Amino acid sequence: MKKLHSLIENIKIEELIGSPEAAISGLTMDSRAVVPGMLFAAVRGSQNDGHTYIPQAIAQGATAIL
């Protein structure tokens, strides 16, 4: 398990809401695969916009949203 800050240390952060010490157990771009502790990467694709699924990811226990 990694801390959020170690995953984002080389990324230019415009806004961080919450603790960079949050424990992250995994990463997914598929909101249906989110389990508690995961980071959900909301990506705009050619057919779907992952931002649409942020509420679902949060409801399923995502620790962080990118």
Sum up the structure in keywords.
2 helices; 66 residues; three-stranded parallel β-sheet; globular
Structural class: alpha/beta
Mean pLDDT, all residues: 94
Count of alpha and pi helical runs: 2
By DSSP, the count of extended strands is 5
Give the radius of gyration: 12 Å
Beta-strand content bin? 15-25%
By oligomeric state, this entry counts as single chain
Order of strands across the main sheet = 3-4-5
Shape by Cα distribution: globular
Would you identify the regions where 5 or more consecutive residues have pLDDT less than 50? none
Series of H and E elements? EHEEEHE
Largest sheet report: 3 strands, parallel
CA-CA gap between termini? 17 Å
What can you see in these coordinates?
- The structure is a single chain.
- By secondary structure, the chain is of the alpha/beta class.
- It has helices at residues 4-8, 54-59; strands at 2-3, 23-24, 26-28, 38-40, 64-65.
- Strand 4 (38-40), helix 2 (54-59) and strand 5 (64-65) form a beta-alpha-beta unit.
- The mean pLDDT is 94.
